[in-house]
Specification:
Mean pLDDT: 88
Strand content: under 5%
Structural class: mainly alpha
Number of strands: 0
Oligomer: single chain
Shape: globular
Length: 80
């Protein structure tokens, strides 16, 4: 059972945008904890919530995330 939970947690984290290099740094218990937290979040907000959790825990750099989000928003506005 534990193995299937760990595999599902890994799939959830990958689905919502965790880079593979970052995923490799996260231990199994923390992967499960993050996946559970993300699964309690409304679907449209899951990617951003997961990114915020990774920044809080030191897996991602806050400045890089902010830059990526601002460039993503600019691209979306140009399409409209």
């Amino acid at each position: 059972m534990e193995d299937s939970v760990a595999v599902d947690a890994k799939r959830i984290l990958l689905r919502y945008g965790v880079p593979i290099a970052v995923l490799d740094q996260i231990g199994t218990p923390e992967r499960i904890e993050l996946a559970r937290e993300v699964s309690r979040t409304p679907v449209p907000e899951r990617g951003d919530r997961l990114t915020d959790l990774l920044v809080e825990r030191g897996y991602l750099d806050a400045d890089e995330v902010a830059a990526a989000r601002s460039s993503r928003r600019k691209r979306r506005r140009k399409r409209s």
